[in-house]
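Weekly sync, protein design subgroup
Attendees: M.S., D.O., the rotation student, P.L. (late)

Item 1: inverse folding check
M.S. brought a backbone from last month's batch and wanted to see whether the design step gives back something sensible before we order anything. D.O. pointed out we never logged the input encoding, so this time it goes straight into the notes. Structure tokens as presented (511 positions):
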């Protein structure tokens, strides 16, 4: 099967890559992209958290460039990951929304991606962790080789979960094959109807070890009710509490196997997304319940990964980038004490909103670059987005490829310049806003202004909202009425960039 994967691969062979690599005058750095799921700006010590301890992330932030104006492209996962890998704004693709576990591959196989660009420069490319960019053509047989997926958009190694930890199928997939699958117990997945006789979170509360609050009442796996229905595949089902260790071990193995380099490792952590299931050795460690505990766990994993790079002698030749796919949420559908045990911790930091929100906390996230001996420790106020990584990394490795919406901010990434973006479109559940300089424009949108389930403001309003972040970081004073000139300037800039993509906007559904 490995043979099939490699032979169907249209990219460079190992020998070609080695030759290309040897041609390069200087040694290209390895690149490790650590991407957390729903980690808030205020969840990290270096970004001001005092109630939770993240010493390993802090070491990267304090020893590298700590960005205070670093953004995810979207306030939800799949759109942010789409932009991260393609260098294209997610609102240009009408399918770039939170995907179900059976959604088809969101990235066109002919599209340029960050890993494809790196393969052309002689890199090995691997992903370990959360994918959530769709698989196959929308009609996947989970018992056969699953394609197209990460292997077809630039990763020559992939060890992934298909969607999210709260969505079926709850199995790991290695290069298109479900890990540990017993062919006599085939997997079936359906997002519309249950399989006859299978228990659900809705009908079988007695089987649950974690209770659902909203959504999450379909199939039960390991006592946790999920989104979507799944049958079979018993031997392949993951153990939630072991997921962090499983992904870490795979990421470490990838590094050890490719230490000859250059390699690109996309380490996509599942924490602190729901369901929050720390390994027992992290239970109670934060005093904040499972959400805090899995942040401590994620920080530990990051420390272990750095140790691996160090022990392999790679730390001086590896650019590490750390960020999160969107802002934080406390109650995202399970009763797990995230709200009750929060205490004085503020996951959104000084910002308004959270995950799903057009306000700052939806997309302004921890954003750090670290490269021992090459990047000098500094903090940066430059405006930078994850959509810029493709062009910036291309510039680093000497590729001429650039992404459609991706700015070459290599000097900013390396901490040598504070000349970031002038303007940036922010997205949240298909709605968009503009940041330009220190100003934010949120156009009027229909739909609820507040989601009582997640306790997060959507950013919707009947009126234009205009904020000046310089003296109003919490977006409290709407200046749209009092500063008409600025409002007009911002609307013109917004319309210039957004064009008529407003066709993609959907009525906001409560998450
Ligand atoms: C929402 C889920 C939420 C989470 C989110 C995706 C419900 C009610 N809510 O639909 O729990 O899974 O999708 O999160 O089902 S993301 O970080 O992957 O975008
Ligand atoms: Ca997320």
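Designed sequence read out in the meeting:
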């Amino acid at each position: 099967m490995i043979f099939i994967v490699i032979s169907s691969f249209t990219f460079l062979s190992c020998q070609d890559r080695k030759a290309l690599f040897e041609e390069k005058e200087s040694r290209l750095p390895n690149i490790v992209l650590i991407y957390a799921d729903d980690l808030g700006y205020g969840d990290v010590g270096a970004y001001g958290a005092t109630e939770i301890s993240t010493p390993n992330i802090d070491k990267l932030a304090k020893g590298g460039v700590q960005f205070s104006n670093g953004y995810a492209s979207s306030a939800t996962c799949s759109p942010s990951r789409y932009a991260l890998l393609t260098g294209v704004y997610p609102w240009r693709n009408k399918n770039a929304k939170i995907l179900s576990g059976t959604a088809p591959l969101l990235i066109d196989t002919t599209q340029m991606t960050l890993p494809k660009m790196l393969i052309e420069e002689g890199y090995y490319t691997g992903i370990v962790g959360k994918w959530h960019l769709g698989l196959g053509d929308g009609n996947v047989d989970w018992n056969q080789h699953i394609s197209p997926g990460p292997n077809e958009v630039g990763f020559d190694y992939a060890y992934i979960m298909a969607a999210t930890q709260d969505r079926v199928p709850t199995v790991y997939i290695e290069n298109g094959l479900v890990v540990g699958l017993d062919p006599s117990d085939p997997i079936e997945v359906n997002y519309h109807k249950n399989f006859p006789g299978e228990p659900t979170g809705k009908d079988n509360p007695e089987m649950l070890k974690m209770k659902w609050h909203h959504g999450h009442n379909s199939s039960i796996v390991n006592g946790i009710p999920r989104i979507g229905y799944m049958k079979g595949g018993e031997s392949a089902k993951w153990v939630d509490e072991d997921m962090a260790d499983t992904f870490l071990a795979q990421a470490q193995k990838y590094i050890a196997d490719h230490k000859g380099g250059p390699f690109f490792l996309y380490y996509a952590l599942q924490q602190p997304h729901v369901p929050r299931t720390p390994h027992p050795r992290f239970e109670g460690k934060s005093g904040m319940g499972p959400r805090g505990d899995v942040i401590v766990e994620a920080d530990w994993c990051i420390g272990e990964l750095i140790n691996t790079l160090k022990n392999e002698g790679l730390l001086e030749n590896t650019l590490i980038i750390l960020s999160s796919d969107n802002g934080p949420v406390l109650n995202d559908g399970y009763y797990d004490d995230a709200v009750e045990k929060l205490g004085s911790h503020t996951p959104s930091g000084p910002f308004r909103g959270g995950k799903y929100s057009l306000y700052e906390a939806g997309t302004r996230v921890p954003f750090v670059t670290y490269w021992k001996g090459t990047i000098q420790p500094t903090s940066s106020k430059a405006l930078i987005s994850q959509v810029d990584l493709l062009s910036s990394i291309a510039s680093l490795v000497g590729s001429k490829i650039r992404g459609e919406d991706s700015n070459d901010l290599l000097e900013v990434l390396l901490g040598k310049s504070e000349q970031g973006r002038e303007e940036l479109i922010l997205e949240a559940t298909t709605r968009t806003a503009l940041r330009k300089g220190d100003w934010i424009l949120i156009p009027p949108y229909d739909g609820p202004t507040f989601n009582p389930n997640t306790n997060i403001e959507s950013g919707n309003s009947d009126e234009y909202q205009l904020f000046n972040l310089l003296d109003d970081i919490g977006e409290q004073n709407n200046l749209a009425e009092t500063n008409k000139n600025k409002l007009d300037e911002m609307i013109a800039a917004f319309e210039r960039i957004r064009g008529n993509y407003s066709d993609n906007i959907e009525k906001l559904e409560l998450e």
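Discussion: The two ends are 39 Å apart (CA to CA). Residues 290-311 form the longest helix (22 residues).
Action: P.L. to compare against the previous round before Friday.
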